[in-house]
Design brief:
Length: 280
């Protein structure tokens, strides 16, 4: 699931390889992923626009698209079903994009371990501006497995204990000490959810790697989450929840779902319960 910078550097320029920069920012940061891509990216990389690749009909951001919509976006990037794809960003978005590719049946996909931060820290080359020209390809996306939870599933899990609801947002977002990060969206968390910030899954200092499967499991257990029991991962808009899903997959666990609507849906619904400042 992970590729190291040395290996990617050796493969760059291969005819059957596409490197995707999936830079994306939450609205409160006031900058777009495309702007970040044009400022600097790995030579030869193409920009994967998470928002453009998400469900255009949804009222919530970053929702999983239909197979046809995903195929259209990916094919336009010059990716075919047999193309090797390497994904990177500056932090955590790569896990979401990786899940999207795997969900629609693409097996030849991996994440650059340490992402752009590690690439830059190791002094590897960068470029700016437009990507090199490329031709679109025809892509066929498979029908996905049922790995997405809806809000009734989450509510039932919280009330009945049928699954552990694990929130990947930062502790401050979870408690409500910081605003949600989205205009008009209330702060707080789902009563009974467990806080396990995505940052515990990735080294926040050089070399910025994903924690090992053993370290990730220890972090789950330290937070009071049993990886051997069903888990529903949630976050702000389904992006950092994919970091938990990635690590669970690396740990060999399959009993997980992602609540794709996440707090963007839950926090906007007055009929669903919410708590803040650590009170359940």
């Amino acid at each position: 699931m992970l590729i190291q910078p040395d290996e990617l550097d050796q493969k760059r320029g291969s005819d059957d390889l596409v490197v995707l920069d999936c830079a994306w920012s939450a609205p409160e940061l006031g900058r777009t992923g495309k702007e970040a891509f044009y400022a600097e990216h790995i030579p030869g990389a193409r920009h994967f626009d998470l928002e453009a690749a998400s469900d255009p009909a949804s009222a919530y951001p970053n929702m999983m698209p239909s197979p046809d919509h995903f195929a259209e976006v990916v094919g336009a990037l010059g990716i075919g079903n047999q193309t090797e794809v390497v994904i990177y960003d500056g932090s955590y978005v790569s896990a979401r994009v990786f899940w999207m590719f795997r969900r629609f049946g693409h097996e030849r996909v991996s994440i650059l371990d340490g992402g752009l931060k590690r690439w830059k820290a190791e002094g590897r080359p960068l470029e700016a501006g437009d990507p090199a020209p490329f031709l679109p390809k025809t892509y066929e996306a498979k029908e996905p497995d049922e790995d997405i939870a809806e809000w009734p599933d989450v509510l039932a899990a919280l009330r009945e204990g049928s699954a552990q609801v694990v929130d990947a947002r930062t502790k401050e977002r979870f408690t409500g000490a910081l605003p949600s990060g989205y205009p008009g969206l209330a702060s707080g968390h789902m009563p009974g959810a467990i806080s396990l910030p995505w940052s515990t899954m990735i080294d926040q200092q050089p070399p910025y790697r994903f924690k090992s499967a053993e370290e990730a499991e220890a972090a789950f257990r330290a937070a009071g989450v049993d990886p051997d029991k069903p888990i529903i991962a949630t976050c702000g808009s389904g992006v950092t929840a994919a970091v938990l899903a990635l690590q669970l997959t690396r740990m060999g666990r399959t009993g997980w779902l992602v609540y794709d609507g996440s707090w963007n849906e839950w926090g906007r619904r007055p009929d669903l319960p919410r708590s803040s400042l650590g009170t359940d």
